Amino acid sequence: MRYVADDLVRFAYELLTKAEVAAEPARVTAEVLVEGDLMGHTTHGLALLGQNLAELEAGRYAKSGAPKVLSDKPAAVVWEAAPDGARLLGPYVVRRAFALAAERARTQGTGTVVVRRSGHIACLAAYLEAIAGQGLVGMLYSSDPTVASVAPHGGLEPRFTPNPMAAGWPTASGPVIMDVSTSITTNGMVGRLNGQGAKLPGAWLKGPDGEATDDPGVMFRKPSGALLPLGGMDAGHKGLAMALMIEALTSGLGGHGRADDPSGWGASLFVQAIDPQAFGGGDAFRRETGWLADACRSTSVKAGDGPVRMPGDGALARKAEQKTKGVALHPSILPGLKAWCEKLGVEAPKPI
Questions:
Q1: Both 3 and 119 in a single domain?
Q2: Residue 190 maps to a domain
Q3: 3-state secondary structure of 288
Q4: Phi/psi class of residue 210: alpha, beta or left (left: φ > 0; alpha: ψ in -120 to 50)?
């Protein structure tokens, strides 16, 4: 069934405000979660709303407030996103961080905001179209120092999270938006398929015996398995290297991470904006990035295959289609929020 996107935003906003979240963080969080579903990232959209509400109810997430500035230099800022002990809602933190990074990029050429102890930030791709639309390059990296689910290449025990990396930039023919985990799959997808009793599309996990498997259940038994880094059993050293880089740029630069043995569901963040105008010029940047994107799209393909797509082409096309025809929510999402609707007195949206 499909739903009007604006109805879903109002629904999420009402649940959050009934949970006593302040208007602005509630609005931003609702918009970002639905943006994830619009793009087709169904494990990182409204599927996360129930977990956010649970964290708010338990007092582990803050209902209002602003990040605390720990360091502020012209092009480099560090924030504490749990100034009073409870984490601020992740989407609200990222939107604020990108706004400041973009402002600094306009004057300094680049602006970077590193954030420690943020709430979960949902779908990374959901933030990048707006940054590219300003003619800027945006980069967003995330790790969660409280969770370990990915094993380093060659190892058995998990040591870090999927550590996604996302970026968006303008081209002469529209934005390119990438959102890639440094593991083959995500914790959200593994949890969903395990709940359905289904298998993964490939052998993307490693069991405690060290063998690759498509059984998500290995993550929920003792001893548990681990997610494989991007590249899998053969080339996982590449995913490991990227994951380590993201840990360094998030928790490392923020000065708070796994070495502190933290607890809670959240994120360490690296948010950066770059203004091409400060380098070779905005027009030259779009000309070059557009040339390469168009050259890739126009390359020959094997008979029967579709044309080459740039990162983000599918997500943006899906968003445009769902804006018009309605959002096809994953069937588990609204049933998963039923208890919260009853508790907070909010009516679920009606399908089209």
A1: no
A2: no
A3: helix
A4: left
